[in-house]
Amino acid sequence: MADLSGASLTALIDAPLHLLGFEFGEITAERVNGRLKITDSCCQPFRVLHGGVSALISEALASIGGHVASGFKRIAGIQLSINHHHPAVTGDLIFAEATPMHTGKTIQVWEVHIWKVDPSTSEKGPELASSKVTLLSNLPVPENSRDAAANLRKFAKL
């Protein structure tokens, strides 16, 4: 596996997450995770993590995991349900992790949890959000996107 920092890996795999500063940790068919330090660009006007950012993280991690689990077929999110339990504010560090609940040939369901973490110990604190993401996983990859999985294939642990 090539040696890239989490930020460099994110730039190759998911541009919107990269713009927010998200850094991937593990990418497998059983788990996708990573971290984000909350900055003003992630927050709503009250300097609290924007719920849309939590939803973006949830769908992105589940979709990446689903893509790997499907054998790198095209994935489309068809339903996202997210609950926000506690706030995160500017300066907080969060950890997000997606794991599959069901990885069928046509439909996949992934669960995603987001926690605040202690930056000095990486110990999980309060859960900030939890979600379920349903994915359609039997879609053909369009001809103009045949290389879409190339970077992910390099870094996913199969």
Automatic annotation (TrEMBL):
Keyword Oxidoreductase applies: no
A Pfam family of this chain: 4HBT
Gene Ontology molecular function terms on file: 1,4-dihydroxy-2-naphthoyl-CoA thioesterase activity
Compartments it resides in: Peroxisome
GO biological process terms held by the UniProt record: phylloquinone biosynthetic process
A GO cellular component entry from the record: peroxisome
The keyword Hydrolase belongs to this UniProt entry's keyword annotation: yes
Assembly behavior: Homotetramers.
Protein name (Swiss-Prot/TrEMBL): Thioesterase domain-containing protein
CDD domains given in the database record: PaaI_thioesterase
Family per record: Belongs to the 4-hydroxybenzoyl-CoA thioesterase family. DHNA-CoA hydrolase subfamily.
Major place of residence: other
SUPFAM superfamilies for this protein: Thioesterase/thiol ester dehydrase-isomerase
Record-linked InterPro entries: HotDog_dom_sf (IPR029069), PAAI_dom (IPR003736), Thioestr_dom (IPR006683)
UniProt domain Thioesterase: residue ranges: 48-120
UniProt entry keywords in alphabetical sequence: Hydrolase, Peroxisome
Pathway, per record: Cofactor biosynthesis; phylloquinone biosynthesis; Quinol/quinone metabolism; 1,4-dihydroxy-2-naphthoate biosynthesis; 1,4-dihydroxy-2-naphthoate from chorismate: step 7/7
